[in-house]
Amino acid sequence: MTALILSGVEVAAALRAQIAVDVAAHPATIGLGSVLVGDDPASHIYVTAKHAAAVEAGMVSMDRRLPASASPAEVEAVVRELNVDPLVDGIIVQLPLPAGLDTDRMVELVAPDKDADGLHPLNLGRLVLGRPTVTPATAAGILRILEHYDIPTLGALAVVVGRSFLVGRPLALMLGARGVDATVVQAHSRTAGLGDLTRGADLLVVAAGTPRLIGGADVKPGATVIDVGTTRTASGLVGDVAFDQVVEVAGAITPVPGGVGPMTIASLLANTVLLARRRRRTG
Question: Which of 29, 49, 71, 258 has its CA 20 to 30 A from that of 205?
Answer without folding.
Answer: 49
